[in-house]
Specification:
479 residues; mainly beta; Immunoglobulin-like; 5 domains; 7-stranded mixed beta sheet; 5-stranded antiparallel beta sheet; 1% helix; globular
C-alpha cells in the first residue's frame, strides 16, 4: 500500500523475476512498462543488484454521459447504452462492449470507469431483447439499436474521444425507427433428443456485430423457434446441439426485407476431423518451431460458426477436431514476424484467396506452405500543417482485407521526426494510413477504410519502398 505522498516500499523481496502491477479504485490498472514501449518490463531481483527506484504514473478512469430520446424527442427509459471498442479476432473486426448502463426515467445515463481512448457509443431500446424467452412487442415499426451520432449502420458511426479523468458530456442519442419482422422456423433431426440446443440470430456484415445484439433461443428438437422485432438486413441463423460425440451444427443465411420469415428449417449434422500438413522453405526452417504453430479454420462468410483450432506436430502435420461442414479460410498462428501464408492447397487446387469447402469425413489433407517476407517500407508522416507527425500510428492493411491475411497487418509508431519503418513485409497489395489517437477504433471493415483514402502500395518481392503519409483525421473526434 502506498503512502499519502504515493511512496511505497516492498521489502524483503526474494531473488527472482517479477512484474509490478498498480491498482487503485477509479484508476486504470497499470503494469510497469519500460520507457517508450508497450511491453511489460520484468523486474529482476538478485543479490548484488541495487534497489530499484520506480516512478509510476497512473491514469484516472473517465465517464460518458448523455440522454437517449426517440425520434420525436421524448426520453427513452430503460434503454441500454454501451461504450464500444473495435477489436480484432480471427482476422475480422469485432465490436466489443467495454461498459454499459441503463437510462433513467428521463432518458439520461452515466457510464463510469471508462478507460481513456476513442470509442463508439450505441443504445439498445428496451423493446429489443437478447433472449427470445422474454416478452416482446409485435409492433410493425419499432425503435431499433442506434449508434452515435444517430445512425443505424456501425460503419457510419462516429467515434468519441474519452479524456483521462473527465466526463464526456452530451453524448446524446436519438433512436431511429424501422419496420421490424418475425423470423421463425424449426430444428429437425433424429429422434432421441438433442441435448442442449441453442439457436442464435446475428447480423451478417463485414465486421462482427456486438455480442449484445446476438439473439438466442433454446427450443427443443422438432419444435419451433421465433425471433421478433428483427429489422431488415442479412442474418445468420446458427444452431448448435450437444450430443455424446460432440456438438452438431447447422447454419442458414436469410435476408429480411419486407415480410416475416416463418419457414426456416435447420438440421444439425455431426462434425468431423480435418487433417493436413505445414511445409516451410529451407531458408526459413531455423526460424520456425513447428510445435508452437497452430492452424485455425475461419468460416469464410464471417459467421460465428465456432473457431476450429489444431496444434501442429513437430513434423508439420496437424489435426483439427469437431469441424462443422462449411467453407473456410485457413490461418496459421505463431509464425515469426514477417511470416505469411504463401499457399493453401486442397486436392492440388490453390485455395488461399478463395477459401475451400469441407463437407464431411474423408476430405483430402490441407497442404499449407508458409514463407517470410523480405520487403522493407520506410517513410515519413506529416499533419495537415505539413509538420512532422510525432507519435502517429502507421497502419499497413492488406487490400482487400480477408481473414487469411490478418497476420499481414502491421502497426508502428512514428518517431519525433515523423519517420517510420516496417521490415519483413510479405508480397501483396496494401493500404497505409497514419492515425492520430485512434488505434482503439481503427476498423478493418472495408466500408470504414473506404472513407479514408490513405496510400496504396504493392509489394512484389524484396522491395525497399519510400512512402509519405498524411495524418488521417476522423470527423467527430473531440479531444
Amino acid at each position: 500500500m502506498s503512502g499519502e505522498n504515493g511512496a511505497f516500499r516492498i521489502a524483503p523481496v526474494p531473488p527472482g523475476t517479477y512484474r509490478l502491477v498498480v491498482e487503485r479504485k477509479g484508476y486504470r490498472p497499470h503494469t510497469f512498462l519500460r520507457p517508450a514501449s508497450e511491453l511489460a518490463e520484468p523486474i529482476i531481483v538478485a543479490e548484488g543488484l541495487p534497489a530499484k527506484h520506480l516512478e509510476i504514473r497512473i491514469v484516472p478512469l473517465s465517464s460518458v454521459s448523455g440522454t437517449v430520446t426517440d425520434r420525436e424527442g421524448r426520453p427513452v427509459a430503460q434503454a441500454v447504452v454501451h461504450v464500444l471498442k473495435r477489436l480484432s479476432l480471427q482476422g475480422r473486426s469485432l465490436i466489443s462492449s467495454v461498459a454499459s448502463a441503463r437510462t433513467g426515467a428521463g432518458g439520461d445515463y452515466l457510464i463510469e470507469n471508462v478507460p481513456d481512448g476513442a470509442y463508439l457509443v450505441g443504445a439498445v431500446p428496451p423493446s429489443v431483447r437478447p433472449l427470445d424467452g422474454e416478452k416482446m412487442s409485435v409492433n410493425q415499426e419499432a425503435n431499433v439499436p442506434t449508434y452515435y451520432p444517430g445512425v443505424l449502420d456501425l460503419g457510419m458511426a462516429q467515434p468519441v474521444q474519452v479524456v483521462p479523468g473527465q466526463n464526456r458530456f452530451s453524448t446524446d442519442l436519438r433512436l431511429e425507427r424501422s419496420r421490424v419482422y418475425v423470423v421463425a422456423g424449426s430444428v429437425a433431426g433424429p429422434e432421441g433428443g438433442a441435448g442442449d440446443l441453442m439457436i442464435s440470430l446475428e447480423a451478417n456484415r463485414a465486421e462482427s456485430a456486438p455480442a449484445f445484439l446476438v439473439r438466442f433461443a433454446n427450443p427443443k428438437l422438432g419444435t419451433r423457434f421465433e425471433f421478433r422485432d428483427v429489422p431488415p438486413g442479412r442474418y445468420f441463423l446458427l444452431a448448435r446441439s450437444k450430443r455424446n460425440l460432440g456438438a452438431h451444427w447447422a447454419k442458414a443465411v436469410i435476408q429480411v426485407e419486407n415480410r416475416d420469415i416463418k419457414d426456416v428449417e435447420l438440421r444439425p449434422v455431426p462434425p468431423f476431423v480435418a487433417v493436413g500438413r505445414i511445409r516451410v522453405p529451407e531458408d526459413m526452417a531455423g526460424a520456425v518451431t513447428m510445435g508452437r504453430l497452430r492452424v485455425e479454420l475461419v468460416a469464410a462468410d464471417g459467421s460465428r460458426f465456432g473457431l476450429q483450432v489444431g496444434r501442429v506436430n513437430d513434423d508439420g502435420s496437424f489435426q483439427i477436431e469437431n469441424v462443422p461442414a462449411d467453407r473456410y479460410f485457413a490461418m496459421v498462428r505463431g509464425l515469426p514476424q514477417g511470416g505469411w501464408l504463401r499457399s493453401v492447397r486442397l486436392e492440388h487446387q490453390e485455395t488461399r484467396d478463395t477459401g475451400f469447402g469441407l463437407s464431411g469425413p474423408g476430405m483430402p489433407p490441407i497442404d499449407i506452405l508458409v514463407a517470410t517476407g523480405q520487403a522493407k517500407i520506410e517513410g515519413s508522416a506529416r499533419n495537415a500543417k505539413r509538420e512532422p507527425s510525432d507519435g502517429c500510428m502507421v497502419s499497413l492493411t492488406p487490400e482487400p482485407m480477408a481473414p487469411h491475411l490478418a497476420e499481414l497487418r502491421r502497426v508502428t509508431p512514428t518517431d519525433k521526426s515523423g519517420r517510420f519503418s516496417l521490415r519483413n513485409v510479405a508480397p501483396g497489395n496494401y493500404r497505409m494510413h497514419c492515425w492520430r489517437g485512434l488505434l482503439g477504433v481503427v476498423s478493418y471493415d472495408p466500408a470504414f477504410l473506404s472513407k479514408h483514402e490513405g496510400v496504396s502500395v504493392k509489394i512484389s518481392g524484396e522491395d525497399a519502398l519510400q512512402v509519405s503519409l498524411t495524418e488521417t483525421v476522423i470527423e467527430g473526434i473531440q479531444r
